[in-house]
Structure prediction request, 286 residues.
Amino acid sequence: MGSVTHASAPPMTRPRLIATDLDGTLLRDDKSVSDRTVAALAAAEEAGIEVFFVTGRPARWMGVVSDHVHGHGLAICANGAAVVDLHRGRQIVQVRELPRETALTVVEELRTAAPDVSFAVERTGGIHYEPQYPQFHLDPGALIAPAEKLLTDEAEYADEPVLKLLAHHTSLVPDEFLGMARTVAGHHAEFTRSSPSALLEVSGPGVSKASTLAGCCAQRGVAAEEVVAFGDMPNDLEMLSWAGTSYAMANAHPAVLAATTHHTLANEEDGVAAVIEQLLELPPAG
Prediction:
């Protein structure tokens, strides 16, 4: 087994808050939370360290960790577009929406640049797809229609704010698709990716894991330098850059490994838990 590595000095005191991605980071590949990780999360909370799950997942996919959030009970979902109370049935308590008009503009520009693109629209109440979009997680009651129809103000779910637009391409290289999309439409919205396929996630201007986490920390009087963050994919980069201390998983995307000064074990080896166990050996801040 490998070990936690540091390219610079680790923190000298315990952090006040831990922010961790889920898929590919806290969760194992089978989407489970290991016993070691459950114990580490509980020990951190008992030591007075707040834990925030910060994920691209929607609220309805948070059941896997609902039993492991303590204290405040909050999680940041949809890449920062929603703050969710896991203690209250995954109720969305804050929304940072993608304006419908902005989403329509992105659809138009990506269709021109990549004609084989297909879209899904993630709203607060569920996700809706185009017919060509890969429906790996088709939710009951989802609408199937062109994105332009799904985003009209006459659509059946038009009263539900849009959290994300998803854009999928069957043949483009994922990072090339992301770069192209940012070039043609990045001035309208935030583009990122967390899937191994060419699947882009589009959020409203200024919306990211980092900006929503920063807001949650400000409400608690927690400074960036008092935060330790964990991640593995491009949608984690802003959060990892914002936090005072950041760790990339051994299985992380090359850009994430290059951007972080600390590396830990892979998600399959409980890399987050390994770091938390080390952090708990440090003296409390202050």
Notes: The two ends are 34 Å apart (CA to CA). The first strand starts at residue 5 and ends at 6.
